[in-house]
TrEMBL record:
SMART domains: B41, FERM_C. SUPFAM superfamilies: Moesin tail domain (SSF48678), PH domain-like (SSF50729), Second domain of FERM (SSF47031), Ubiquitin-like (SSF54236). This is MERL protein. It is a peripheral membrane protein. It is found in: Cell membrane; Cell projection. The gene is Nf2_1. PROSITE patterns: FERM_2, FERM_3. Residues 311-464, 517-544 form a coiled coil.
Length: 552
């Protein structure tokens, strides 16, 4: 077979883009594919088995429409674009999410879609409930709260609260994050699928959960009501109140639903009950309402029947998977706990090691400081020892000086005593000398008087001798020579000798008196000199005493 023949046999295709809540996929579809073929391809790509909840939605002329499964894709009124975009979304909602959502992927897709509807304010939620739901969303995304890892500001780029709630309260982003984190910290140990299930369990109790709203009117001219279709039935709301329906029709109480052009008719199971007729804006709306009513009614009836073998197998597998995941989660939780304990032990060991290193460093520093202090103390000890030696030497010198001063003081006292004694002796000598001087003066006066008397007597004797001589020997006066042979001359010579001797004695006496006077003067001069020396010594001793007192 040629390559050209193979090319001819290849079917023609067109491209589609499937947009899920969190991803986009592109597929090549054959021209003859029906909506179910494309839908099954997408479900296989996602690994989804609970296909009855979902559908492919597209927008044409501003109206959201679901792709029909039994018609060819290209035969339906789809956008003329390449690739053709479809949104893979939940078309029908379960009554009890915990019992009906068996697969984790189903649960995850519902979680993402309901979360988006709450954030887009398609489902009303009170501010308190939005904070709680946001905490479960954070737990599903980030896992367990870890203060060391989830620092303030880690939710800054996450959209967790509706803008209506943010506008309603004058709180900063940091304050909202603090409130969410307070709840988030309490969800520790909850796995991602559990957190998402808890989110859906809270959301399914909201009044607008799973409700598709359509504007209707009781007559052709006014659109003053809303018709809501959900898993439990059909509800009629006033235009300004989507929470509390004015009237409800449960699926079990509805016998038939039909439309004719823009008119929609609801027939109750009770044939006696009134038939309700409403008008929509266009025929397409009635077709969409009928399509949703048929799908929800089928699921309603299916829930109340015995599960098919496929559903039973899926539930069994889901149960086993949950048990396995529970055990796995328990094992992971145990491992995580052990790991956390090991990390805490490691951190404790590291802290202890750091503490020991710090203590060792401090001990080393203390040792170095001790060594430095020891060296310094050794130097100080050496200096102190030298100072002690110097002080001892100074003390010895001081002791010697003290002894010398004591000796000097004793000597000074002794010298002072001796000097005082010498002074007293000098004073006594002076007194004696004065007395002796007075006595000698008196004696000299007496001697002078005696000398004067002797001279006077000599003069008188000479005069008398001359008188006698003149009288007896007149010729002797003229001729004083005498002859040795004459006896009278001999007598005369004897008298002359006696006179001369007496004269000699007087001279000798005068000479002795004069010599004693000179000796006395010499002694007086020497005594004055000695007195001056004593005064100088006493003055010097007084100065030494004053200096010794100051030194002490």
């Amino acid at each position: 077979m040629s390559i050209r023949g193979l090319k001819k046999k290849q079917p023609k295709t067109f491209k589609v883009k499937i947009i899920t809540v969190d991803a986009e996929m592109e597929f090549s579809c054959e021209m003859k594919w029906k909506g179910k073929d494309l839908f099954d391809l997408v479900c296989r790509a996602l690994g989804l088995r609970e296909t009855w909840f979902f559908g492919l939605q597209y927008t044409i002329k501003g109206m959201c429409t679901w792709l029909k499964m039994d018609k060819k894709v290209l035969d339906q009124e789809i956008p003329k674009e390449d690739p053709i975009s479809f949104h893979f979304l939940a078309k029908f909602y379960p009554e009890k999410v915990e019992e009906e959502l068996l697969q984790e992927i189903t649960q995850h897709l519902f979680f993402l879609q309901v979360k988006k509807q709450i954030l887009d304010e398609e489902i009303y939620c009170s501010p308190e409930a939005t904070v709680l739901l946001a905490s479960y969303a954070v737990q599903a995304k980030y896992g367990d709260y870890d203060p060391s890892f989830h620092e303030p500001g880690f939710l800054a780029h996450d959209e967790l609260l509706p803008k209506r709630v943010l506008r309603q309260y004058q709180l900063t982003a940091e304050m909202w994050e603090e409130k969410i984190t307070a709840w988030y910290a309490e969800h520790r140990g909850i796995a991602r699928d559990e957190a998402e299930m808890n989110y859906l369990k809270i959301a399914q109790d909201l009044e607008m959960y799973g409700v598709n709203y359509f504007p209707i009117a009781q007559n052709k001219n006014h659109t003053d009501l809303l018709l809501g279709v959900d898993a439990k039935g059909i509800h009629i709301y006033s235009i300004n109140n989507r929470f509390s329906p004015n009237k409800s029709f449960e699926w079990s109480a509805i016998r038939n639903i039909s439309y004719s052009e823009k008119e929609l008719t609801i027939k109750p199971l009770d044939k006696k009950a009134e038939v309700f007729k409403f008008f929509s804006s266009q025929l397409k709306v009635n077709k969409l309402i009928l399509q949703l009513c048929i799908g929800n009614h089928d699921l309603f009836m299916r829930r109340r029947k015995v599960d098919s073998v496929e559903i039973q197998q899926m539930k069994a597998q889901a149960k086993e998977e949950k048990a396995r995941k529970k055990m796995e989660n328990q094992r992971l939780a145990r491992e995580k706990q052990l790991r956390e304990e090991a990390e805490r032990a490691k951190e404790e060991l590291e802290r202890r090691l750091f503490q020991l290193e710090d203590e060792a460093r401090q001990a080393n520093e203390a040792l170095i400081r001790s060594q430095e202090a020891a060296e310094l103390l050794a130097e100080k000890a050496q200096i102190a020892e030298e100072e002690a030696k110097l002080l001892a030497q100074n003390a010895a010198e001081a002791e010697q000086e003290r002894q010398r001063l004591e000796i000097t003081a004793l000597k000074t006292k002794e010298e002072k005593r001796l000097m005082e004694q010498k002074m007293r002796e000098a004073e006594l000598i002076a007194v004696k000398l004065v007395k002796e001087s007075d006595r000698r003066a008196k004696e000299a006066e007496h001697l002078r008087q005696d000398l004067h008397e002797a001279r006077e007597a000599e003069r008188k004797a000479k005069q008398k001798l001359l008188d006698i001589t003149r009288l007896n020997y007149p010729h002797m006066v003229k001729y004083p020579q005498y002859s040795p042979t004459d006896s009278r001359d001999a007598n005369f010579d004897k008298g002359s000798i006696k006179l001369d001797l007496k004269d000699i004695d007087l001279k000798r006496l005068s000479f002795e008196i004069e010599r004693e006077r000179l000796d006395y003067l010499e002694k007086s001069r020497k005594f004055e000199d000695r007195l001056k020396e004593l005064k100088s010594e006493i003055h010097a001793l007084k100065l030494e005493e004053k200096q010794s007192g100051l030194y002490s």
